[in-house]
Specification:
159 residues, mainly beta, four-stranded antiparallel β-sheet, two-stranded antiparallel ribbon, 1 helix, 33% strand
């Protein structure tokens, strides 16, 4: 009975998420093909460079250079690019959420629960948006990332 009072009532739960990255398209800002799309449009795709792979080896990837920007060039004026739609795959996601909780019985009708929740427990960097506009300075670099590790504590009284 005494052992159950100290060691019993614990609850553990976790969620592991592993996802591949989302595909995206390499574009140019502006209307370089002269189709009337306006200066803010991103209607024109890039051209692939023959013999260049957009994927970098893992030891060469960084937040400033997520993929090889030298694998793409702007098409000549008044032409559309030859690169396919959604041909580049963005970064994947690795996330582990974990919680631990303990229930306590105070009286027959009154109870309490203490819990701790950990979101992105290993604090793995999960990148979100990658610069995909070839004629902008952040082309090929990481623009944003998902939240780092977050920890929250809670107490609940039930009656």
């Amino acid at each position: 009975m005494v052992r159950d009072r100290f060691l019993g009532g614990w609850q553990f739960s976790s969620i592991l998420s592993l996802q591949d990255g989302f595909p995206f398209t390499i574009n140019l800002a502006g209307d370089t093909a002269g189709i009337g799309g306006g200066p803010g449009g991103i209607l024109i795709r890039a051209n692939p460079v023959a013999g260049q792979d957009y994927q970098l080896p893992a030891d060469q990837k960084s937040t400033a250079r997520w993929f090889n920007p030298g694998a793409f060039v702007a098409p000549p004026a008044f032409q559309f690019g030859a690169l396919g739609r959604n041909t580049v795959i963005g970064p994947g996601l690795v996330n582990l959420d974990f919680s631990i909780a303990r229930k306590f019985r105070i009286t027959e009708r009154l109870g309490a629960q203490l819990r701790a929740e950990f979101f992105n427990l290993p604090n793995h960097p999960n990148f979100n948006l990658i610069g995909r506009i070839i004629n902008q300075p952040n082309f090929g670099g990481v623009l944003s990332q998902f939240d780092p590790r977050q920890i929250q504590f809670a107490a609940k009284v039930s009656f």
